[in-house]
């Protein structure tokens, strides 16, 4: 067996120890090899939907509807609880479009996400994903919309194949444009909120540099009730380069929110992939 086959077998072994439902996909960006485990099963994304929103935002910029340096305001219509800092700031706080995107990704700010959804257009997020062939990915509502109740599947969904594919396009500089892809990578490399797949890796301040050297990770994750835990990452080392996504649902809670069963699933799978390919 090759190392990709060995890794797939290891993920299946690890996943067998967990309750709930999980899916995964991984692409070796050097060789093009790929495997998926139930990768087309539609799953709730939680905050991982912020990567498709990011790509749609940069598509709007490429289309000339926006510019990264445009000024935008945080208003009452954007407020949303959960993760982020804008909910604690005064309405009318002003920032650039890129700053809103940065807040959406690096600290998973939900209010900044609503700003980005409004800037890009909710329908345009879905149209952008469809145009790229990611037909399992749907943003149904702005964050905090109570019409969804607490059902994560009524908020946003995707699949391991879609997110791995989207991360692959960004990594290969083929999402929107080469320049846009590189800027999205810069933002994703600074993620420090819900960094699940890299949690057990030996990351340090190297990942905070503007131009990291050989070892870096660009990623986003998500979490919600009903044991929903999600992650999409691009890993780069001197020895390996790969994109990966893992989704979990129905996992058991742990003693703390960041130590729930779903978190451990992603932690262990990310570490296994790193040790096999990185």
Question: Can you give a write-up of this model?
Answer:
The protein is of the alpha+beta class and 278 residues long. The protein has one domain (3-277): Beta-lactamase, CATH 3.40.710.10. The protein contains eight helices and ten strands. It has helices at residues 3-15, 50-62, 97-106, 110-120, 122-131, 160-171, 178-188, 261-277; strands at 21-28, 34-37, 43-44, 71-73, 94-96, 138-139, 156-158, 216-224, 228-236, 241-249. The strands form three sheets. The chain has a five-stranded antiparallel beta sheet, with helices on both faces. A three-stranded antiparallel beta sheet has the order 3-7-6. Helix 3 (97-106) packs across helix 4. The longest helix has 17 residues, at 261-277. The chain is globular, with a radius of gyration of 17 Å. The two termini are 18 Å apart.
